[in-house]
Amino acid sequence: MRGIVPSKKVMSKLGKTNAEFKLIEEGDKILVGLSGGKDSLTMIHAMREQQRRAPFKFEFVAVTVGYGMGENFDKLSAHCKANGIEHVIRDTQTYELAKEKIRKNSSFCSFFSRMRRGYLYSVAQELGCNKVALGHHMDDAAESFFMNFIYNGQMRSLAPKYTAENGLIVIRPLIQMRERQLLAFVQDNEIEAIGDEACPAMRFDVKMPHARAKMKVMLAKMEKEFPDLFTSLNAAFKNISVDSFFITED
Ligand SMILES: Nc1ncnc2c1ncn2[C@@H]1O[C@H](COP(=O)(O)OP(=O)(O)OP(=O)(O)O)[C@@H](O)[C@H]1O
């Protein structure tokens, strides 16, 4: 089954990122995290097409983690089925476990994300996957970079590939793509994506993820002033002069 094919630009970025960071390799079995948002939806279609084109064989399965909030994933399942993509749904008690945090009005956004990551890893192991793919893109990497810089005093971003403590390899095939490319993919193909309001943190009137929203606004302003900002950031993330920072000798 051919299914929906992402644009040439998306496929070429995926191919280049794959080759550059050796993300997908012969014999891989990859768990692809599918939230139902535009990013992970683009990712499953791009990987499906990559599987068709690549001269090597790999398998993948889309996995959706529910938060125990009565989410309905029927449409998402039907979409995967119609496009010949294996889809596994796992519901969890994350919401129940997070209630205490919600009562205390403390940040539970990161709690959801930590719990989700843990579930994704255990499902990956259960399904015999050696890699986990996440749909983060260049805008996410830039926002994370500036969030860490401004709020935490750290120089960190989102790596295209790393090995988690449990030995699973985490890959981010969309990391060199812009968010607007992913939005265009779902719009052009009239794919119904879950919007930002589906982020569990947005469902409660407490502690919204202000920091990320602020970074988005700041980056948009900077990009207006410096149109090549993201191209530069992408290059800078590969061109790090560690020696030029304040490193102590011991
Ligand atoms: N409920 C979920 N089940 C499975 N994987 C998920 C889930 N939520 C997020 N992920 C994975 O983690 C990645 C990053 O999550 P994040 O919350 O930043 O994305 P999102 O805003 O839901 O975006 P997206 O548009 O990718 O779906 C997603 O792209 C997806 O690969």
UniProtKB/TrEMBL annotation:
Q: MF terms per GO, please?
A: ATP binding; transferase activity
Q: Span of the secretion signal?
A: none
Q: Which example biological process does GO assign this protein?
A: tRNA processing
SUPFAM superfamilies, per this entry?
Answer: Adenine nucleotide alpha hydrolases-like
Q: Does the keyword NAD apply?
A: no
| Cited CDD domains | TtcA-like
Q: Which domain of life is it from?
A: Bacteria
Q: Which residues cross the membrane?
A: none
Q: What is this protein called?
A: tRNA 2-thiocytidine biosynthesis protein TtcA
Which residues does the annotation say bind ATP?
Answer: G33, L34, S35, D39, V65, G135, D140
The keyword ATP-binding is assigned to this record: yes
Q: Where is the tRNA(Ile)-lysidine/2-thiocytidine synthase N-terminal domain?
A: 29-198
Q: Which InterPro entries match?
A: Rossmann-like_a/b/a_fold, TilS/TtcA_N, tRNA_thiolation_TtcA_Ctu1
Q: Which organism is it from?
A: Sulfurimonas aquatica
| Record key words, sorted | ATP-binding, Nucleotide-binding, Transferase
PANTHER family on file: AMINOTRAN_5 DOMAIN-CONTAINING PROTEIN, SULFURTRANSFERASE-RELATED
